[in-house]
Design goal:
The complex is a heterodimer. Chain A is mainly α. In chain A, 63% of the residues lie in helices and 0% in strands. Chain A is built from 33 helices and no strands. In chain A, helix 27 runs parallel beside helix 29. The N terminus of chain A is likely disordered. Chain B is of the alpha+beta class. Chain B contains 3 helices and 7 strands, in the order H-E-H-E-E-H-E-E-E-E. In chain B, the strands form 2 sheets. Chain B has a 5-stranded mixed sheet with strand order 6-1-3-2-7. In chain B, strands 4-5 form a two-stranded antiparallel ribbon. In chain B, strand 4 and strand 5 form a beta hairpin. Chain B is globular, with a radius of gyration of 13 Å. Classes of the chains: A mainly alpha, B alpha+beta. The interface between A and B is medium-sized, with 26 and 22 residues.
Chain lengths: 737, 101
């Protein structure tokens, strides 16, 4: 028994060991052989674990299984699915092929989502680099047939989702290929090379004479489970490429985009990141000790894979800061060769004109973070051309967003001093609260008196009620004889600007002010118009401090002073037009949608759990099992109330999406009409930002939008809307179906 | 007691953040740590006498998972050119914000 942990350890050790892999494997095989009769299940379990956790070392384990199998036929029959076992003479080639056939047959099923057939085809293609040669030698005809079926499938796949997932709008300089298309091209390449590749380690070669004498297993028939609504399949991706051989020093060749080695290295690097992403230092170290590091331009490939993860659409698989902090570790470990991170930044910058908006945003956020870890040193002069063009163009906009994010991590003077004079127009203005009731020329402002009284009262720690009494003095500009006004803009303006001014010292001061006067704010902003007015006042005070607006809006939502729909309406309002393409507006928008979704999810979970509890309890009573009063069981009435509440919130969520898409359509339609009447090209920089934000909202929340698609379609997406906007929606709709 | 404190540390979603510059503001800290998750509260450490920031703060997240992310990705990186140190904290209590300055 004490020898057992040895198996896992020995496997690990072997990976680090410098002595011959083959002799280690042989030694390990004889140790394990002795333990097999007693600890078979355990050994198999550990082996399975090793294979799952270290797929790139798969060949080591298959060889080990092969060696064990050659000594003891009873062993290998239980380890299945590994194509590599065919190479080690554990599994009969024909039976693996039968398994592949079953997988590929999924492509012929009717009424299934494409992601299902994609997944099975991918599973087959991804194992072909290992076993292709063997199948080609042993089962050429059948193998050929399989490949023809795959080829047919690949050629008739829907690829409508591709443009939405691409990082760049252009295929120059590198095409952004769909993942299955790309892998198929790589497989076709290795096939034309007689299935010989240069990346996979094949330790079993040394044991060929032993292994070929073993008795081989036939896999039992394995049929993929049929499709049902519950099964989730991985979503398609596109392959991110930013380098080719011309970017890399001559002595190290980067495999071409359709070379199978490119796929194998990328897969392996992605797998390392996935294994170590929770430990950035280990992650960096593991990436840099890549097995074939001396034969490939490793730093370039790591950079490409890392940025590929960062820019993955609709969402990055990891926190953006994971990528950022791991890149910093890589720079620390490899100070000499990581300058190509700077080269990569230059390249991404040069390609900004065709980069998608959400990716530009992530790029800016990462770059500011990276600069803040390296004293904000950058050769800005190289980019000075961007100061000469329309500031709405991607490059100047990227630079100003980077500087804005740098400012958030630093302070104004520092950022101002770290860029050349010519960049000053792109440096954000110094953030400070603007309190109009204390500025010069404020004497004529209506409400001035009350503002000053409020200032005094709040400073001398008055109660919320006392402020309401003071506010009573202010006349309502909306008042007329007929209708009761929906809100009181002047009161809101006077109170909110005074309160925010007094709390302007820090976030905490502002939060404390909001908390203390929560009741007043809630009273003033009862209607949605009132809430929008409150947000506008906040903008007047803090327009130079986007981060403050982000956290204040967040606070106002969390304390339920404003609703999500009010925030959305405010962001689309004319008052925000000047800032509409700035990232912070979308930071607020996405966080608002996110909060709404979280809220719905929470209530949904609670209602479902309560309903389950109640049902279970009822059943128990019906079965005569449980008579005592359980406190945890909700009453029918309570559950119904929860369900009503859920329905209410779901309707709010639906309304939020309706507002967002409606407002998108209005501003885009206005733009198109204006361009037409002025005979201007509608494809302006503004249009690019806005249409890509629309796409982003669609894509990032596709699950939710899809749930409400019927309502959205009937109310918004009618044939009256302009063809360019309609195209977006049609494209989106096809992706969902 | 000690075991009680250990239990609290295992459940906490609050971090102690140290080695900050005295000039580093709550806003800057928010920007960096906000990249790891939704922040509930930041309590700036203050000099007992002068009531000015003195190089540390308490960072409370809504969830422990987000605090774990901060520990993973922020600890040991730079803010205002200083290497930020983070560690689990049992949770902020009034009075603990006053450091020795």
């Amino acid at each position: 028994m004490q020898r057992l942990p040895l198996c896992a350890e020995a496997c690990e050790e072997e990976l680090a060991s410098t002595s011959s892999l083959e002799s280690n494997l042989e030694g390990l095989a004889s140790v394990l052989e002795a333990d097999l009769p007693n600890y078979k299940t355990k050994i198999i379990r550990i082996l399975c674990e090793c294979v799952v956790k270290l797929p790139e070392k798969q060949a080591v384990y298959t060889t080990l299984v092969g060696l064990l199998n050659s000594k003891n036929y009873n062993f290998g029959g239980e380890v299945r699915f590994l194509a590599d076992l065919v190479n080690c003479r554990v599994i009969v080639a024909g039976s693996l092929l039968a398994l592949f056939d079953n997988f590929v047959e999924v492509t012929l099923e009717d009424n299934i989502p494409q992601v299902r057939s994609d997944w099975y085809v991918y599973a087959v293609l991804a194992s072909l680099p290992w076993v292709g040669r063997e199948l080609y030698e042993k089962k050429e005809l059948e193998f050929q047939k399989l490949l023809v079926t795959i080829d047919n499938y690949i050629s008739k796949r829907q690829k409508i989702h591709v443009p939405a997932l691409q990082v760049w709008l252009s295929d120059q300089p590198h095409p952004q290929e769909e993942y299955l298309d790309c892998l198929w091209a790589q497989i076709k390449n290795v096939r034309s090379n007689k299935w010989l590749e240069k990346q996979v380690s094949r330790p079993y070669m040394a044991f060929d004479s032993v292994l070929c004498e073993a008795l081989q297993h036939t896999l039992p028939q394995i049929i993929p489970p049929s499709h049902n609504e519950e099964i989730m399949y991985p979503l398609p991706t596109v392959i991110f490429r930013m380098f080719d051989y011309t970017d890399v020093p001559e002595e190290l060749a980067i495999p071409g985009s359709h070379a199978i080695e490119r796929y194998l290295i990328e897969e392996h690097l992605s797998h390392i990141i996935n294994t170590f992403h929770l430990e950035r230092k280990d992650c960096a170290a593991a990436l840099l000790s890549f097995t074939t590091k001396n034969k490939i331009p490793l730093d370039y490939m790591i950079t490409e894979v890392m940025f590929g993860h960062l820019f993955r659409l609709p969402t990055s698989p990891y926190l953006e800061i994971m990528i950022g902090s791991t890149l910093i570790e890589l720079c620390k470990l490899q100070p000499k060769s990581m300058p190509q991170l700077a080269q990569a930044t230059e390249m991404l910058y040069e390609r900004l004109d065709t980069m998608k908006t959400p990716c530009i945003e992530r790029f800016a956020n990462w770059f500011a973070y990276h600069l803040s870890n390296f004293q904000f040193r950058w050769s800005w002069e190289d980019w000075s051309e961007c100061t000469q063009v329309n500031p709405l163009m991607p490059k100047p906009k990227f630079v100003s967003e980077v500087l804005h994010k740098c400012l958030r991590l630093s302070y104004h003077q520092r950022i101002k001093d770290s860029v050349p004079e010519s960049f000053q127009d792109l440096v954000p203005v110094k953030p400070q609260a603007n309190y109009k009731y204390e500025e010069e020329g404020s004497a004529q402002l209506p409400g001035l008196m009350t503002a000053h009284q409020l200032l005094e009262a709040i400073r001398s720690k008055c109660t919320p009620e006392e402020t309401l009494v003071l506010l009573k003095e202010v006349p309502n500009p909306l008042a007329d004889d007929t209708d009761e006004p929906s809100h009181h803009p002047l009161r809101i303006d006077v109170f909110v600007s005074t309160l925010l001014h007094l709390g302007s010292k820090s976030f905490s001061h502002s939060f404390a002010a909001i908390a203390k006067f929560h009741y007043v704010l809630k009273t003033l902003a009862e209607s949605e118009e009132g809430q929008i007015c409150l947000l506008k006042t906040m903008y007047e005070v803090w327009s130079t401090h986007p981060q403050m607006m982000v956290v204040l809006t967040d606070k106002l939502l969390k304390t339920q002073i404003v609703d999500c729909s009010a925030v959305a309406n405010w962001l689309f309002s004319a008052d925000m037009a000047a800032d509409f393409t700035k990232n912070y507006v979308w930071e607020i928008m996405h966080s608002t949608i996110h909060k709404m979704s979280k809220h719905v999810e929470k209530l949904q979970k609670e209602a479902e759990e309560a309903r389950d509890l109640l049902d279970a309890h009822k059943k128990k009573i019906a079965d005569g099992l449980d008579y005592d009063d359980d406190d945890d069981v909700p009453t029918e009435e309570m559950v119904e109330r929860m369900e009503e509440r859920l329905e209410l919130v779901q309707n709010q969520q639906k309304r939020l999406f309706l507002i967002i898409f409606q407002r998108f359509i209005i501003i885009l339609t206005d733009h198109l009409a204006r361009c037409e009447s002025e005979s201007m090209d509608y494809q302006t920089p503004w249009y690019k930002w806005v249409i890509e934000r629309l796409q982003e909202v669609f894509l990032a929340h596709h699950g939710l939008v899809f749930r409400y698609i019927n309502t959205l379609e009937s109310l918004l997406f009618t044939s009256d809307i302009d063809i360019h906007i309609l195209e977006e929606i049609i494209e989106y709709h096809r992706q969902g179906s | 007691s000690r075991s009680e404190q250990e239990r609290q540390l295992l459940e906490s979603s609050t971090l102690y953040v140290g080695n900050l510059s005295f000039y580093t503001t709550e806003e800057q800290i928010h920007e960096l740590f906000g990249r790891c998750g939704d922040i509930k509260r930041i309590v700036m450490g203050l000099d007992k006498v002068r009531k000015t920031p003195c190089g540390f703060c308490f960072m409370e997240y809504y969830t422990r998972a987000d605090a774990e992310m901060a520990l993973r990705y922020v600890n040991g990186t730079r803010l205002d050119d200083r290497i930020v140190r983070t560690d689990w904290d049992v949770g902020f209590k009034e009075g603990r914000q006053y450091g020795r300055g």
